[in-house]
Amino acid sequence: MTVASAKQALKKYFGYDQFRSMQESIIQRIYQGKDALVLMPTGGGKSICYQIPAVTMEGVCVVVSPLISLMKDQVEGLRENGVEAAFLNSSLTSSEQQSVEDDLYNGNIKLLYVSPEKIVSQSFFPLLQQANINLFAIDEAHCISSWGHDFRPEYKKLKFLKQQFPKVPIVALTATADKITRRDIVRQLGLQEPKVFLDSFDRPNISLMVRPGQKKFEQIIDFLRVRPNQAGIIYCLSRKNTEEVASKLRKSGFKASAYHAGLPDKDRSKVQEDFIKDELEIVCATIAFGMGIDKSNVRWIIHYNLPKNLEGYYQEIGRAGRDGVKADTMLFYSFRDVMVLRDIIQNNNSENEAVQLSKLERMQQYAESLICRRKILLNYFSENLENDCGNCDVCKNPPQYFNGTVIAQKALSAVVRLQERVGVRMLIDVLRGSRRQELLQLQYDKIKTYGIGGDISAFDWQHLISQLINLGFLEIAYDQRNVLKLTPASKEVLFEGRKVNLVKLADIKQRQEAEKAKVKTKTVRERVRDELFEALRELRRSLATKQGIPPYLVFSDASLEEMAAKRPLTEFDFSMISGVGEKKLKQYGAEFMKAILDFVSKKADEGVKMKGVTQLQTYQMYKRGFSAEQIAMERDISEQTVYDHLVQLYAKDKDIDIKRFVSTKELKLIIGVIRSITPPFKLREIYEALNEEIPYHKIRFALAYFYKS
Length: 709
Ligand code: ADP
Ligand code: ZN
Description:
The protein has 35 helices and 18 strands. It is of the alpha/beta class.
């Protein structure tokens, strides 16, 4: 097997022109019959690594996957692309199983997905022996490691594959890359001299943004208003939050539902299904949501609360933008969340409490970062990003500093006067001169610094104090009800004249304004494109519903975006869209092109200037069988113009049948003349050389033909 045939299959079945970074070498490795371990982030394109060998090699590829809910989806996706695929797991009736087994036995399947339980079962073994297996792909291979989070005991038994089928290569794939897990996978599966393919875990299409955890709902609404019709997930810490947020969103006119472990199974599957089918836009969920779904067009993720650690956070935001199209994320950060999470960790009495606390601290550092967030994130996963990413809030709007020494002195001296016995909230109340009952009872209104910060809002004080904490001028004593303590650095500020630079708070508001402004400045062209995208999305949804499959299996958002931008109207142009393979071209091409043409014509009628639209109208009539003369009459343009269009369309590879305009004999004649003269070719010259007997438009077609061949 060669790379060339792999590339051909990539276009034929999946409609892609290029392999992504490592896919090609992984496939080559498999062609050599050797084992491989593939570590790629979610959305990195792991499946192609075994699907291409499966369709190009003799026999069948057996894929072990622990996520039963995903198997059906994956198999449907493959069938949509014209690949014979099937799955075997406990969700099938015995007669369904029988029929798949027959197909396997008869060699009618290129990819078979099986659950770990099934593949290790005694009864399945004889069948495996009879099948002509070309590759074992172990998906979610980290499940083999009892160190990991998704340990599956059956995975340990997969050892037998190498023992019983020593000649069949194994490719193990996972998005969990830590070293212990890696070692476990290699050892447990008995991989032979496995080559490890470690891809970058960066997901550059996912934007990163952290916002203060105040007025969250308003911020969410602002965020959603500029992202109409986009699917997303809001992760919350508590079940109660999920329900509250969902219900508020519904009241504001959004399609939103809650999802958490406390709901009946039936309700949960309904939420999941509606979300997958693009019928529900927003899911407000606890972290459990998302594992069993492969939806590639999740466009945004919001974290309503701070996640426990960066692993979890990265996994959750990773559910957005799997199709490679731009996706946005927003994390709300507040001290309160840190404290709640600390309490949870400390009350769990788990043995690795210290580890969990330090992971939480890293999470907090990320949220408070004043340098490129992606750098911090990748750094955490032992990867270095050379340049700033340009796609996080810090990069997009670098913080501006001001001299905050006086502000720092006010806050710190209040902490001194309060004898380091209060937390953030009380400190702010004292600084602002609050008349709160508790404060008065404690007689904090009597201390010298009471009310000296009344000119700054409580909201702003929150930010200023968290900066002081991050800069090491204050510390939170987590073991003493989170009271604020001074540090050696704070004494330098108070007594030794040390200067403090703080970040301007206006930034936060500016950022929000900047985001709103960005949306307003869309060009007409962009708006037209968005509108067409929506029309195509609607078509995709209705086609998907008819067949009972998720819309993203018809075409990904990436494909629709390309269609909306390029507006292909011929089979050839349509087949050039990324994601359009042979089967999809045949199955959906006509309907999508019709929708594009309808849209384009409608826009032109509305007077929107569309590049090439008048040509397209000519083309449309041509396709319906009108002659040039009829088109000219009908459209009230000159016949000359119609020929102009047709020649240009022909030159652009549209499927214009040149024979309808020039006979083969005439063509030969004209080409003969063209060959006999030296360029540049002048129409008049050719016309005269042909004794002025052949009309100009035929000569122009012939010239176009000449240039093309
Ligand atoms: P993973 O399993 O690693 O999470 P997938 O295999 O589901 O990722 O791939 C993610 C997305 O990227 C899918 O929509 C897939 O079709 C697309 N994809 C994979 N390889 C390519 C490629 N070479 N060119 C374009 N898109 C690709
Ligand atoms: Zn950045």
